[in-house]
Amino acid sequence: MGLDLPNDNLIRGPLPEAHLDRLVDAVNARVDRGELKVMLLTGASRGIGHATAKLFSEAGWRIISCARQPFDGERCPWEAGNDDHFQVDLGDHRMLPRAITEVKKRLAGAPLHALVNNAGVSPKTPTGDRMTSLTTSTDTWMRVFHLNLVAPILLAQGLFDELRAASGSIVNVTSIAGSRVHPFAGSAYATSKAALASLTRELAHDYAPHGIRVNAIAPGEIRTDMLSPDAEARVVASIPLRRVGTPDEVAKVIFFLCSDAASYVTGAEVPINGGQHL
Ligand SMILES: NC(=O)c1ccc[n+]([C@@H]2O[C@H](COP(=O)([O-])OP(=O)(O)OC[C@H]3O[C@@H](n4cnc5c(N)ncnc54)[C@H](OP(=O)(O)O)[C@@H]3O)[C@@H](O)[C@H]2O)c1
């Protein structure tokens, strides 16, 4: 991949070798028997990612997750959660090769059925307003693009063999802000999500001959930490369904796209926004 690895030691939660054999033998036997599907989910600790991990876990999937914070076993009661979680700042592209190594270690040659690129950042001004194309600093542009766009590219590239082995699928989490100027989301966020939608098409085209489907979901306003406290009241009147969405309503669409029910769906960007695109 040609990237340097100066900050390898900054990955926290690397899988201890002692755990590896025990975890891998038990899990891979179930994968071989077709009893278990495996996903990598970025940003599983809160919001849409948390609801997604919960739903897939209830459906019997193994969840490999990553975020900057450690695994919280009380909030996230899925099997092997602690061993299958590692801490990484995906906004630092130099960490990505090491993050991919952590995933491969946990897979130990087993296929990967789904990659869900969910972790994202939507910076606001200190007063909670949108950062415009006139006021966004270079550092902010880079930080947003690294997490929202570059990390999904590198994960998709780095895990290509494992996804191909499973005839797996990728779901990228874009946003309604990628297709219109949005009252809260800033310019860097909006353009990164537009680029991620475009990346979804490119990946869908390039990965289709290898049996890998690539889709996106574009949420509107969903009740998570990312939504500022007054946002709900401000937008509800403009949403045809007259309410914001919930994380589990997003998780269900991600689940559909990763399931055999969507076996002929690739290159799609599904709006989940209560009708705001109408
Ligand atoms: N909520 C909405 O209304 C809405 C609307 C449209 C699109 N979306 C998109 O949906 C996705 C999830 O949003 P959300 O509302 O669920 O967000 P959230 O509640 O803020 O959760 C974000 C998740 O990403 C992780 N994360 C953040 N920065 C990271 C980094 N640098 N490296 C690794 N992990 C990182 C966080 O964990 P740590 O803090 O531990 O790192 C957390 O698990 C995002 O891509 C967002 O753009 C959300």
Explain how this protein is built.
This protein is an alpha/beta fold and 278 residues long. The protein has one domain (8-272): 3-Layer(aba) Sandwich (Rossmann fold). Helices cover 38% and strands 12% of the residues. It contains eight helices and seven strands, in the order αβαββαβααβαβααβ. The chain has a seven-stranded parallel β-sheet, sandwiched between helices. Helix 2 (47-58) links the parallel strand 1 and strand 2 (62-67). The structure holds NADP nicotinamide-adenine-dinucleotide phosphate. InterPro entries: NAD(P)-bd_dom_sf, Sc_DH/Rdtase_CS, SDR_fam. One of its GO terms (molecular function) is oxidoreductase activity, acting on the CH-OH group of donors, NAD or NADP as acceptor. This is NAD(P)-dependent dehydrogenase (Short-subunit alcohol dehydrogenase family).
Query: Would you report the number of β strands?
Result: 7
Number of helices: 8
Strand order of the largest sheet: 3-2-1-4-5-6-7
Domains (count): 1
The proportion of residues in beta strands is 5-15%
| CATH topology name | Rossmann fold
* Average predicted local confidence, pLDDT: 91
Radius of gyration: 18 Å
> How would you sum up the global shape?
globular
Helix content: 25-40%
Structural class: alpha/beta
Task: Compute the separation of the termini in Å.
Answer: 41 Å
Would you identify the CATH architecture? 3-Layer(aba) Sandwich
List segments where confidence is low: pLDDT < 50 over at least 5 consecutive residues: 1-9
Order of helices and strands: HEHEEHEHHEHEHHE
Q: According to CATH, what is the class? A: Alpha Beta
In this entry the ligands are: NADP nicotinamide-adenine-dinucleotide phosphate
Mind describing the biggest β-sheet? 7 strands, parallel
Family: Belongs to the short-chain dehydrogenases/reductases (SDR) family.
GO molecular function: oxidoreductase activity, acting on the CH-OH group of donors, NAD or NADP as acceptor
Pfam families: adh_short_C2
Organism: Bradyrhizobium huanghuaihaiense
